[in-house]
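Ops channel
N.P.: pipeline sanity check, posting one input/output pair.
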């Protein structure tokens, strides 16, 4: 144990002091009212405790999905930009192709209507001098995948 050259005295009836008490506002800084193990309350110097040091942050690894997303973002953006530039260059050709497709649709529609009419007109003009031609065709096949044979008769 440590021997001290001083003795802590408290304000008790056994040790009367000329100043019977001290107000809390009169206590100097660094001094606090403490209770000793025997239950006696006294003033004592208390060491000031330094605040605990903040924890040192530990570097967290970057998740794989974040790395992948970060790498794909410029690639996708570049692809979209390239597609936009390509469409801007191709727009006149696409418009012309669209017009050409509509012209082809009109030609097919005209052919679907006009060709049968021309054939009907041609048959009626060719068939005016003679009677109509009848073609009879007989086809026979044996089995599901058998070879088919046939005959054509003109009358």
């Amino acid at each position: 144990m440590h021997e001290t050259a001083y003795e802590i005295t408290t304000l008790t009836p056994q040790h009367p002091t000329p100043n019977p008490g001290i107000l809390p506002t009169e206590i100097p800084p660094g001094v606090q009212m403490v209770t000793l193990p025997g239950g006696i309350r006294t003033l004592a110097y208390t060491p000031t405790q330094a605040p605990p040091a903040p924890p040192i942050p530990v570097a967290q690894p970057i998740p794989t999905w974040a790395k992948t997303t970060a790498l794909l973002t410029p690639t996708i953006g570049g692809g979209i930009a390239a597609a936009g530039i390509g469409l801007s260059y191709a727009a006149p050709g696409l418009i012309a192709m669209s017009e050409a497709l509509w012209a082809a649709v009109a030609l097919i529609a005209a052919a679907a209507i006009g060709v049968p009419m021309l054939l009907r007109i041609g048959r009626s003009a060719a068939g005016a001098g003679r009677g109509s031609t009848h073609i009879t065709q007989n086809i026979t096949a044996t089995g599901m995948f058998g070879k088919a044979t046939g005959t054509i008769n003109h009358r």
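N.P.: looks fine end to end. The CA atoms of residues 107 and 138 lie 37 Å apart.
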